[in-house]
Structures are given as C-alpha cells and as structure tokens.
Design goal:
It comes from Halanaerobacter jeridensis. Pathway: Carbohydrate biosynthesis; gluconeogenesis; Carbohydrate degradation; glycolysis; D-glyceraldehyde 3-phosphate and glycerone phosphate from D-glucose: step 2/4. It holds the Pfam family PGI. The protein is an alpha/beta fold and 479 residues long. 46% of the residues lie in helices and 13% in strands. The strands form 3 sheets. A 5-stranded mixed sheet has the order 1-12-11-7-10, with helices on both faces. Helix 6 runs parallel beside helix 12.
C-alpha cells in the first residue's frame, strides 16, 4: 500500500515554507532591515560551513543529519514493538530531561488531540503519555501515586546512564515496580534508550533484561527527537513515526545545497545572524496554533544550548549566542506584544502559521444587535486566529520590527518532521557562522559536576570542595 508521503504531489502540497519578506529593508526600513547584498556577502562563509557540515556528516560526527535515512528500519521495528505491546498499558511515562523530554512533549502536543490523556476516543487504544521532565518531588510523587503500575510502562532515556535526573526517576520507579509487582516484573515495565556500547544504563538494561533502543553516539540530546529518544514514545501514542522521518528527509533534500536563496535553513540562519550582529539577539518564536506551543519550547533549548558559547573553535573567548524566547499567539498579544511593538529594537519574531487547522469551529451568533460584539458573528476561530497573526505581523512590520514566518500547510507528522530538520540544520549552520561548536554544552556540565560532587559521586570530590568553599552570603541582602 502506497503511503501518502510517497506521493510527490502530496509532498509538495505539504511543503513547509519560510517567508522572510519582513526581514528586508523594503518592508521594515533601511535602519533595521537587510538587503540582498547583505545576505550575499555571507555566501562564501555559508559555502565553507556547508562543506564543513557535509564532511563532518560523512565522518560520522553528525549522525543526526542521517537519521531520516538510517532510522527507517529502526522506526519500523519500534512501530511493530509498540503495536504488539501498547494494549498492555494504560500509561507510558518518559523518564528523561532536556532533549530527552522536550522533543517527546513537542511531538505529542503537535500531533495528538489537545486533551489526549483525558479522551479515550482520541487515544484509540493507546496509553496516556506523561513526561515529568523534572525532579521536582511534588510533581513526581503525585504522578507515581496516581499510576496503576501493573498498567504502566516507563521509558528511561540517558546515553550515559549517569545523568542525575532521569536516573533518579528510574531508580524510584524501578523500586516501586519491584516492591509492588515483584523484581521479576521490571523488564515488563521498562524500555531503555541509551548508548549501545558504553554507559551505565546499557549495563542495567542487560542485567534486567529490559528492551533497549540505541542513540547514535554523535546524536546529542537536543538533536535526538528523530532517534529512538522521540520515536518510541511517539509510536506508543499512535503517531506515524515513519511519516515523521519522511518529512525530515524531504526537508533534508530541499536543503541539500549551499545556495542561500534556495536553502531555507541557511537563509534563516544568515538573517538571524545578521540581526544578532546588529544588536538584536532576542529570537522570539511565536506559534499561532496552540498545538505548536511546545515546539517553541523545543526550539528554545536547541538554539540556546547550541549557540550560547564562551569560546570559538580556536579557543578565543567570544561569549556569543542569541537568546531564544517562546511566545504563543494569540495569548501573548495580551502579555508580550506591547514590548515587541514599542520596546527596544533587539528582537526578531519568528511566527509559526498554520493554513489549515485540524478542526474548525464557528463563532456563536448571539447578540448580533450589540455593537462591538456583532462583528465576530459569521466568522470562525481558524479565521480569527489567522487574522490576528497577520494583523500582528503587519503591526510589527509597520513599526520597523524584524519578523519572519514559517508556514505549515497543516500540522501533521510530515510537516512536523520538516520543521524539526529545518531548525536543526539552521542551528548547525549558525554554529558555522559564529565559528563555535554547536554540539557541546560545557556550561551545562559545570552545574552538573557541582551536583555530582555534593551527592557523593566518585571522581567529583574536588567539585564538592569547591562547592563547600563557596562565598558566604550576606544576610543583610536577604530581606
């Protein structure tokens, strides 16, 4: 049976597009806008960066770029595993943090019913999905107390198997399962996603007989949603993960060029880079579709953790990095838009626009005789939210504020896969423009290391000493 994403005409109709008109001087004015010449001036740098990325990909250093191809068979295996097992469980719980959680949340929010966990019909035999994404004791205890462990499967995600947050969640969930159901039941209630050849979680999974999927070593957390990190939970909740990968592969093909004017990932990277260099380091992602709300959260980690760096590739101190901000239309028209319209000229707004919503809803028609209300009658909510997006876009542009739009024909697995790969590749090219390593996170590691020392992990005694000798706080400054 032919899949819809194998049809060339359907794929073209579902193409995610980038509209950058409002980044240029003829729309927002010469003081803040750019010219084609400004963009062209960075073509050589982009060409060199493109070459670097392809060489790193071929050398096996950037396996996230290969996932749409290398994980086709793995996606089929995950899909079959989920189909064979999902009716055994009412709850699927992801034990992960950061990139091991945000992508799972974003895909679920985007592609399933907004009230999926509450609506049995929407789940259609699939389990509810929970992603605690933190070690807040109140939140985690409340979840564990609520779950029927006999009908729950936990997906623990950690490449190293030593990351404090997911492994503390795992230890606690495993203890409860073993106490309530017996130690022999552990393998029936856990699935692991980890590194294949190293780390503590693979050791535990093999000891316990836990079903395991693997993350390629060079796929970092924030680039991992198209690997088993995101595919396992997505498959269990009924998402077409093969179509998700197909969408990513389609965007990879569209972006397989160093020509700036043909590659949306590279063009947006250049424009965001130019804005940052001009004193506009704030990157606001503002979806005008609630289902894309958590996509903006995923983007926030991708952009911040990849591009916020102290050193460049030569070891020079540069302290670079734009600041990503998440917003939501139309909600944040009533909380943040005032700042974006009249505050400092230090932001670029990236709108996410959906052309066709999954469900339409007509606005009620009562009180047609009352001025100031009757204008709403006869319209629909998809018309209202789209009009509000275009009105906000126009208002920003009239106020000489940089903005661009990513257009989804509709939100489905294919278009979401495109979006994910588009912004991952944009981020990688931005690393080339800044001349920094976009794939490490040394600033995150320092805080982790202090915590390891305080908690008594072997090899981190010096970090505990440093923590314990930190300066005393002035009590007069604690009011």
């Amino acid at each position: 049976m032919t899949k819809r994403y194998e049809d060339a005409e359907w794929k073209e109709s579902m193409r995610v597009k980038l509209d950058v008109n409002n980044m240029f001087a003829d729309k927002v004015g010469e003081e803040h806008g750019y010219t084609r010449e400004d963009v062209d001036a960075l073509q050589d740098k982009v060409t060199a960066g493109h070459k670097n990325l392809l060489e790193a990909k071929e050398a096996g250093e950037l396996d996230w770029m290969k996932l749409p191809e290398t994980h086709k068979e793995i996606a089929q295996e995950i899909k079959e595993f989920a189909e064979e097992n999902r009716d055994k469980y009412d709850n699927f719980v992801v034990l992960g943090i950061g990139g091991s959680a945000l992508g799972n949340i974003a895909v679920q929010t985007a592609l399933n019913d907004p009230y999926y966990n509450l609506k049995e019909e929407a789940r259609d035999g699939c389990p509810r999905l929970f992603v605690p994404d933190n070690v807040d004791p109140t939140r985690l205890k409340s979840l564990l107390d609520e779950l029927d462990l006999e009908r729950t499967i936990f997906n623990v995600i950690s490449k190293s198997g030593t990351t404090a947050e997911p492994m503390s969640q795992f230890l606690t969930a495993r203890e409860k399962v073993a106490e309530e159901l017996g130690a022999d039941s552990v393998s029936d209630h856990f699935v692991a996603v980890t590194s294949k050849d190293s780390g503590k979680l693979i050791e535990i999974a093999e000891r316990e007989g836990i079903k395991t999927y693997y993350v390629p070593d060079t796929v970092g957390g924030r680039f991992s949603v198209l690997s088993p990190v995101g595919l396992v939970s997505s498959a269990f909740v009924g998402i077409d993960i093969e179509e998700l990968l197909a969408g990513a592969g389609y965007m990879a093909d569209l972006c397989d060029t160093d020509d700036l004017w043909s590659n949306p990932a590279y063009l947006n990277s250049v424009l965001q880079y130019l804005a940052d260099q001009d004193g506009k380091p704030m990157s606001v992602m503002m979806p005008y579709a609630h289902v894309l709300k958590d996509v903006a959260d995923w983007y926030r980690q991708l952009w911040a953790e990849s591009l916020g760096k102290e050193f460049d590739k030569e070891g020079n101190v540069v302290n670079v990095g734009p600041t990503p901000i998440k917003a939501l239309g139309a909600t944040d028209q009533h909380s943040q838009a005032q700042l974006y319209m009249e505050g400092p000229y230090d932001k670029v707004v990236i709108f996410l626009e959906v052309e066709n919503f999954r469900g339409n809803l007509e606005i009620g028609t009562a009180y047609e005789d009352i001025d100031g209300i009757s204008y709403l009658c006869g319209h629909s909510f998809d018309e209202l939210i789209t009009t509000e997006k275009k009105a906000t876009e126009l208002a920003l542009t009239k106020n000489n504020r940089l903005n661009c739009t990513v257009k989804f024909p509709e939100v489905n697995a294919f278009t979401l896969g495109q979006f994910i790969f588009l912004f991952e590749l944009q981020t990688a090219m931005s690393g080339e423009l800044y001349n920094i390593n976009a794939f490490n996170q040394p600033g995150v590691e320092l805080g982790k290391n202090y915590a390891y020392g305080v908690l008594g992990r072997d090899g981190y005694a010096d970090m505990k000493e440093e923590f314990d000798s930190r300066p005393e706080k002035d009590e007069d400054l604690i009011l």
